# Entry
Amino acid sequence: MREQREETRVPEDDIVCFKGRHRGCWEQVVKVAGRAIIAVFVVAALISYTHAVHKKEEWVQGQVVEVQKHRQQSPEYTMGGSNPSDAPLTSRYYEFEVSIRVGCKTYVGTYQTPFNYLPFTPDQRIQFRLTKHVMYFDVPDSAGIRMHIAHRREECGTGK
# Structure
């Protein structure tokens, strides 16, 4: 048995369009090409954005320079007048100020906790995730430590 093949013919208008003789066709080609270019730019922007997001989440290696411990009380006043039962409730906590050097920059972070313990010691090398305002530390047997960056110091060009 022999199969019959049906010939598909390209319409005459399409042939004229590809040869460049039909003006309306070129407008359509330009419109399609413009959409393709826009799609390429959108995809490129998404790729660069995801790369930038993942780059910010990289872990960096630093060295603990200094750890200061301060015992805090809130509120700072405890006098309630002549009757001691009028005094406000107080909470006591520890505030640690940790300086960590990464390259030429030193980041000073603050961490508040009710416990008299912080797993960092001076001259300790530590890995952490650094964002614009926060340092994240992965501590064993813990959910991790989130430390607010109080300030930064640049120390390379200062002659220190």
Remarks:
- The helical segments are 12-18, 23-56.
- The chain is about 25% helix and 35% strand.
